[in-house]
Amino acid sequence: MDDKDMRAFSFQGNGHVIYNGSFYYAHSGYKDQAYVVRYQLKTKTNTSVLIPMANGTGPTTLLYAKGHNLFDFAVDENGLWLIYGLYPSNNTVVMKMDPVTLQPHYMWNISLDHHRVGEMFIVCGVLYALDSAEDRDTHIR
User: Fold this and answer.
1) Which end of the chain, N or C, is surrounded by fewer C-beta atoms within 10 Å?
2) How far, in Å, are 9, 32, 123 from residue 35 at the CA level?
3) Residues 55, 90: Cα–Cα separation, whole Å
4) What is the tens place of the pLDDT at every residue in 2-37?
5) Which residue pairs from 41-46 have beta carbons closer than 8 angstroms and sit at least 24 positions apart in sequence?
6) CA-based radius of gyration for the chain
7) Between vectors from CA 4 to CA 80 and to CA 41, what angle results, nearest 5°?
8) Which 3 state secondary structure label does DSSP give 6?
């Protein structure tokens, strides 16, 4: 994408993170493709990468039972992670990303239906799923 396309980007959802001086966010809807964008806070420059097997406009790829996010970012002591729904299935992809180039280090296709959970997070390189992000009492898988 060129700079003109990048200026038209806006962030979507609420699964963004700030990590090592950059704001990481999702953008979808550009030619039905989904992108991850790194906005460097100090230099005010963008870098983006197309995410494989993520449909930017399909409702089947929205995460979680409420379906507000296309991507969910996580940060732990191992680095930057991206969680998203695999198009066209209900499987979940967990991707460890390079925080500068946004290129994948590793990707896992997990047979966890991301529509049946309320939230997911990563700690110490382990994916956890909450049955509900709204209920007082819930289960962690």
Assistant:
1) C
2) 10, 10, 24
3) 12
4) 444 444 456 666 778 999 999 999 876 556 678 899
5) 46/6, 46/9
6) 15
7) 40
8) helix
